[in-house]
Amino acid sequence: MSPTLLIKGEYEVSQSSKLNQKLTQAFGMFLGIAIAVWVLRGLGILTFVPGGVILLLFLAAIAFGILSYVQKIWWRFLASLFYIYFLDVQVKW
């Protein structure tokens, strides 16, 4: 649940981030490609793809998932500090 920030009681500011959305999309893309390549290699269709490439795809998906989570938490923390200290706001969780 993301916080809703009320700036002087007039505006609501959402904490959604385009960077987080891109990281989440990259996570899904790499995970989907890795699973598809893994299944197709197991069926004998993509036998020329080395196992290391599939492992790198899975590791990239895990890295993007972790980055997405950390960026979301860090963004909320920084945004909350900025709005509380610099813009005289009330944070409702």
Sequence stretches where pLDDT stays below 50 over 5 or more residues: 8-15
Strand order of the largest sheet: 2-1-3
Report the major sheet: 3 strands, antiparallel
Q: What's the count of strands? A: 3
Shape: rod-shaped
- Roughly what fraction of the amino acids lie in strands? 5-15%
Using only C-alpha atoms, the radius of gyration works out to 20 Å
Query: Element order, helices and strands?
Result: EEHHE
Helix coverage percent? 55-70%
The whole-number mean of residue pLDDT values reads 78
Q: Termini, distance in Å?
A: 8 Å
Task: Explain this structure.
The chain is 66% helix and 12% strand. The chain has helices spanning 18-42, 51-86, and strands spanning 4-7, 11-13, 89-92. Strands 2-1-3 form a 3-stranded antiparallel beta sheet, with helices on one face. The longest helix has 36 residues, at 51-86.
Provide a brief overview of the structure:
Helix content is 66%, strand content 12%. It is mainly alpha-helical and 93 residues long.
Question: Could you outline the blueprint of secondary structure elements for this entry?
Answer:
Elements: E1 4-7, E2 11-13, H1 18-42, H2 51-86, E3 89-92
